[in-house]
Amino acid sequence: MSLQFSVLASGSTGNAIYVEANGQAFLVDAGLSGKQMTNLFEQIGRDIKNLSGILVTHEHSDHIKGLGVLARKHKLPIYANEKTWQAMNGLIGEISTDQKFVFQTGSVKSFGSLDIESFGVSHDAAEPMFFVFHHEGKKLALITDTGYVSDKMKGTIRNADAFVFESNHDVSMLQMGHYPWSIKRRILSDVGHVSNEDAAIAMMDVIGDSTKRIYLAHLSKDNNMKDLARMSVEQTLAGKGFITGEQFDLYDTDPSTPTTLVAI
Fold first, then answer.
1. Which is nearest to 158 in space by CA: 197, 209, 192?
2. pLDDT at residue 1 above 80?
3. Number of Cβ within a 10 Å radius of residue 45
4. Alpha carbon of 168 to those of 112, 143, 225: distances in Å?
5. DSSP letter at 32?
6. Which residues lie closer than 8 Å to 246 by C-beta, 6 or more apart?
7. pTM of this prediction?
8. DSSP state of 21
9. First and final C-alpha spacing in the chain
């Protein structure tokens, strides 16, 4: 079976990504209510109770809001690094010991023919990490919630067949917006979020011959728009000879509507 995925929800109000391959199925983050998550799964024709587990990137509420409810209801394993487990204490309710697993940053866990590689990102959380999924020569890279994309991160995600890539904000919209300066400074910092332009600049170093799909993710509801993000990324990439629609395709993600479940 092929490597398939759907960005169930992405944005400042909640994040969740579904990935499956060869009988293994994982949810990356559960940042919406249990009811909302169930509805999203129904929209892609999948059932939460069939998950192999839930992978947690970090403890911010837009990534773990429904985590405890779903894990308890469906008896699902949860995978997170030790610092994230500590940070989630008191945030997700009681989780049975036999459902709690440590997934160290920078390690690989194998589930049948699906290998999941974790890597650290730069964000104001205890120990944030994201994931690369490998299956039968195909590669899916997920990277959001990072203030910048380091050379080490680029080396891990390079030449993925598909990327889910943060394109959080337009810098001008953020600077002129209503947020307090303290929040603006946090978003623009090295432990904040990647802007549209900076996302495209990072993409230039990781797009490879295998790359066919790039999903622009975690857009700010106040400081970005889908059309603006896509235009900014396309224009920046085009300036260096990367032609969207020919070499690869760009896709939107949404806070409440899942992307089509696709195989890569």
1. 209
2. no
3. 8
4. 34, 11, 9
5. S
6. none
7. 0.97
8. E
9. 11
